[in-house]
Amino acid sequence: MTISDRIFEKLNEIGMSQKTFSEKTGISQSTISEWKSKGTNPTSEKIMIICNVLNVTPEWLLSGIENTGGRGNKSDWYVIDKDTEMGVLISTYHGMDEKQRERLMGYMEAVIAMTKGKEGK
Questions:
Q1: Given 37, 49, 84, 101, which is the most exposed site by the fewest CB atoms within 10 A?
Q2: Would you write out the chain's pLDDT as a tens digit for each of its 121 residues?
């Protein structure tokens, strides 16, 4: 199954029209239709927006395999939308100098230690 096959399968599953998909992704309807008629796939720069709109992982979209449970290899990296809370956190962290980062890491370790202490009671 190709990437475009998975996209159309997911659209059908969630009941989303190609027009709505086009509006949400910013990908023209003619391009989406071309994927179907010519069996082509989206360009790499469109993968993340497609995943976001369809609520799927890049792994699933590219391979059809979802890494769930305790089986399989865990990724050593994350793909995060920069406009989410986590994305803002990472962008802010990236803008910090080394001392600020060390201090933030200390705060996080203290919060985790406090939480573990409360759970044990």
A1: 37
A2: 889 999 999 999 999 999 999 999 999 999 999 998 998 999 988 999 999 999 998 888 988 877 655 555 555 666 677 888 988 998 899 899 999 999 999 999 999 999 887 766 5
Locus of tokens 């309807």:
29
Asked if 26 and 89 count as a contact pair (C-beta separation under 8 A), the reply is no
The structural domain count of the chain equals 2
Return the closest-CA partner of residue 90 out of 99, 98, 102, 82: 82
78 falls within a domain: no
The pTM of this model reads 0.58
Give yes or no for a contact between 19 and 29, defined as CB atoms under 8 angstroms apart.
yes
Please, are residues 5 and 64 in contact by the beta-carbon 8 Å criterion? no
Q: Is the dihedral of CA 46, 51, 57, 62 positive or negative?
A: negative
